[in-house]
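I had to read the description of the data format several times before I understood it. The format is easy to grasp once an entry is in front of the reader. For illustration, here is how one protein appears when written out as sequence plus structure tokens:
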Amino acid sequence: MADKKTGIAIAAAAAAAAIIPGLPRDIDVTRYTVCSSKIHTPVRMMILSDLHNADYGMNMEDLMVKVLAEKPDLILMPGDMAEEHMHQDNTLVLMKALRDFPVYYSTGNHEEYRPDLEDLLKKFREAGVQVLSYRNAVFTKGDTSLEIVGIPCRKHESDYSADDINRIYTTDNYRILLSHRPHFIDLYNHIDCQMVVSGHAHGGQWRIPGTNIGIAAPQQGLLPKYISGVHTLDHSLLVISRGLSRHYHYIPRLYNNPEIVVIDLIGREVEKHG
């Protein structure tokens, strides 16, 4: 019965998309260039976030075509790739399709809601994904190394200790933190890293046409600030993905396509002479 209701909802959404302006019709690819003296060999990172088990065609081909075209060196997943109540067929198909890439993942709130979380994470690992929960991993390309730390999604900022997170880092390489919720700004300002990667806010779900202004986001209320883009914090950059889901509990996005984020990390000399 649940599958039948889901099918009806998808069919209705597809029909509505043909007549209602603003509904998602494509996947946006948003590109940023970030320079740092810690980068000696350029690295291309991709952020895939907040899939919520969305369907992108057979073998997730509609999404994979976009991914492969960008030729990322590594992929970051800051949570909510799965849903809390649904099967995870699409999520697992995508992760298996990405086996040729180093993939680093931290949980989102919807995964943390699941009673079978450990079984789900086991499936992610079997698909080749590095699950980072208060753990670090080092990615190396040429003369550049990135140290990536992931933390599980907790409800309150006070549930974390910046000192405990900082102790996870073991190198002086370019440091990245995967953390699902983008609005924990005071915490992030106390993390000794160069970049924080988040999702969660879905770009504000509905955006005012012709602008990047979102209507609402969880825990941020109306006209939220931290919903997408690159934000400069005290000591680091916060990069927020609008995510890949087309709707939230069947509330569709409006004027807010799903998004892949691509970040080119380059050295300062490349920036100066490029």
The mean pLDDT is 92.
